[in-house]
Q: What sequence folds into this?
């Protein structure tokens, strides 16, 4: 039996409602459980957990992106960009990715009938982003998009002033440094890592090669430019994966929130984009080779460690400020 408390404090679950988190609930009230789920289905569509890895990255990109896209060491899952575009914009709105890599945000935006532009520091990735946009248009995408090659820490010097206050949504993710990414193939000595670099590692303009403090400083500058371009009520969505360096947690999501605050943005939500598929009540993780290897080593040496199967999604809007007559305006 499910225990039913006599009194329920404000904010507590309704005791007459089976707790859907309790395994006993479904057994004791199968009919009511289904009824509960049915009634709440509409709410569930707006969950803070985004089911963005129901299919693998290669399956999500197949036919939608040019094959060279795979060379980029840290592509965003297309379903993450598509979810953000669907949740925060309407057709015709303008979307920006100031670190657009191979153009995932832009491709998903133009397929959804939004216009988009992106900045990318490395010519090899901005060329692929251009190719992906052409590919999207060849396959029926209706939105317009363009890519500017340059350093997004100087965003306002790269884009026309006329775009100030015009952007409805920014979707982006910072680079995580050279240790996390890449592909592997078997070799005589085990495995060989490849496609794990943004460039040859000498150009400090690429934020990938700065330490966490340098990355956070550069990212705050980029977000400051984004805030200037954002329209009133516009939204900034940043995905960042917590990762580990020599077994120690590098808390990139917290650094992103701090960078957003320094840029004058207001954090409004923290969601989770799953890097695991939901299947028959279970999560099927889609980890990289390196993540698996690190977790296996830690567990073998007696350190209990969870496999990271999500990205944090940090969501900001523009700060409201007071005008001279005391009314609240959006900065
Ligand atoms: C995590 S990746 C973004 C990947 C992208 N979302 C995609 O799906 O392809 C970060 C990107 O930022 C670029 N980048 C690094 N520093 C930059 C800067 N100062 N200005 C513009 N882009 C930069 C990197 O070259 C890399 O392509």
A:
């Amino acid at each position: 039996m499910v225990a039913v408390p006599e009194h329920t404090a404000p904010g507590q679950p309704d005791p007459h409602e089976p707790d859907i988190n309790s395994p006993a609930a479904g057994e004791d009230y199968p009919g009511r459980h289904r009824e509960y789920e049915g009634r709440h289905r509409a709410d569930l569509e707006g969950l803070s957990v985004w089911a963005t890895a129901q299919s693998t990255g290669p399956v999500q990109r197949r036919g939608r992106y040019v094959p060279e896209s795979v060379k980029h060491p840290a592509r965003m899952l297309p379903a993450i960009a598509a979810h953000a575009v669907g949740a925060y914009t309407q057709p015709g709105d303008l979307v920006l990715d100031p670190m657009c890599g191979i153009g995932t945000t832009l491709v998903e935006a133009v397929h959804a009938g939004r216009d988009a532009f992106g900045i990318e520091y490395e010519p090899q990735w901005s060329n692929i982003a251009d190719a992906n946009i052409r590919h999207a248009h060849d396959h029926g995408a209706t939105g317009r998009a363009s890519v500017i090659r340059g350093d997004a820490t100087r965003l306002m010097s790269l884009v026309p002033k006329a775009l100030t206050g015009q952007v409805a949504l920014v979707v982006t993710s910072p680079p995580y440094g050279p240790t996390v990414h890449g592909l592997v193939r078997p070799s005589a000595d085990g495995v060989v890592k490849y496609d794990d670099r943004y460039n040859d590692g000498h150009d400090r303009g690429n934020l990938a090669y700065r330490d966490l403090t340098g990355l956070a400083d550069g990212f705050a500058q980029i977000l400051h430019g984004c805030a200037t371009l954002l329209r009133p009520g516009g939204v900034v969505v940043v995905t960042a994966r917590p990762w580990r360096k020599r077994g120690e947690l590098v808390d990139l999501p917290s650094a992103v929130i701090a960078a957003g605050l320094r840029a004058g943005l207001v954090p409004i939500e923290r969601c989770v984009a799953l890097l695991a598929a939901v299947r028959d009540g279970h999560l099927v993780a889609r980890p990289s080779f390196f993540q698996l290897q690190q977790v296996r080593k830690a567990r073998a040496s007696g350190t209990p460690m969870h496999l990271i199967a999500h990205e944090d999604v940090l969501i900001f809007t523009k700060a409201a400020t007071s005008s001279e007559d005391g009314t609240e305006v959006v900065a």
Notes: The chain has a mean pLDDT of 83. Residues 51-319 form a domain with the Rossmann fold fold (CATH 3.40.50.150).
